[in-house]
Amino acid sequence: MNRPAVVTGPGERRRQLGLAFAWGLAESTVFFIVPDVFITRLALRDYRRALAACVAATAGALLGGTILWIAARNGAARHLLDFFTLLPGINSRLIAQTGQALYEHGLPAFFTGAVSGRPYKLYAVHAGTQGIPLAMFLLVSLAARLARFAATATGAWLAGRALRARTETFRLRLHLAAWTVFYLIYFAIMR
């Protein structure tokens, strides 16, 4: 039997938005788990709250992307990219692929990167070194990140609706299992 929806106040909403923002910032710079994990968990309970978290995570990602873009424009690209190879799922081949994709395809590469497992942080550094204007970088980043976050939120919400006859505990365990399997496969492929 399903439990009733959890009613939360403004303090809980602010904490959720703060976490989404911080997660977007962290993942766009040094963290290696996407904010979609948190956003999709929210979407299982409350689609509107998940969409608000999409906006907050996007804002955090834009801040992080801006920091990396500025650092890359000011000569720190090599240090950043070397550091990124220490993170799970990033290697020199992936760094070269993202740089080449951005060079060959321009800003649309942000959209293919958003759905192909290429970290946004790499595109941010390459955009800075390739001289892509900050305003254009931010505009495309906004569209690509928000679209991806909203798509995963919508997918999770639809899955939650399809599984509404199941308990919330079942749905949350399935969520955890799905993301665990996703990352086991992702890190194995990106090794």
How does this model look, in words?
The chain has helices at 10-29, 36-45, 47-84, 92-105, 109-116, 120-129, 134-162, 168-189. The protein is mainly alpha-helical and 191 residues long. It has one domain (10-189). α2 (36-45) packs antiparallel against α8 and α3 (47-84) crosses α6. The protein is globular and about 50 Å long. The protein starts with 9 loop residues before the first helix and ends with a helix.
Q: Can you give the mean pLDDT?
A: 93
The largest sheet, given as strand count, sense and whether it forms a barrel, is: none
Instruction: Give helix % range.
Output: over 70%
Per DSSP, the total helix count is: 8
Overall outline: globular
Q: How many E-type strands?
A: 0
Number of domains: 1
Strand content: under 5%
Q: What is this structure's SSE topology?
A:
Blueprint: H1 10-29, H2 36-45, H3 47-84, H4 92-105, H5 109-116, H6 120-129, H7 134-162, H8 168-189
Brief account:
This protein is mainly α. It has eight helices and no strands.
Name the descriptors:
191 residues; 79% helix; 0% strand
